[in-house]
Amino acid sequence: xxxxxxMQLLKESRxxxxxxxxxxxxxxxxxxxxxxxxxxAKMALNMDIWDPEREKQIEQKTRKIARENKxxxxxxxxxxxxxxELNKMEQEQILRRK
Length: 98
Fold this sequence. Notes:
Elements: H1 3-44, H2 52-68, H3 73-97
């Protein structure tokens, strides 16, 4: 591969990554906003913020997707735990305002 081709490939790949990152961040924002709706339902159902069964389902689904796509399961689980924690924090903030 010529240097000019390599530079073009690098530039195009980075641009695609930037677009994907933006989509990921928008999806995280959307996911977090759903936490606001979820806490309202949990309050009506007298449920706790922490739902171990739901977290287990998320982990199982994540492991399956990681294996199917040959992605490190443990790393993907860490990402999903961070997202789950972000949602729980959002729900806790809403509860404190009530």
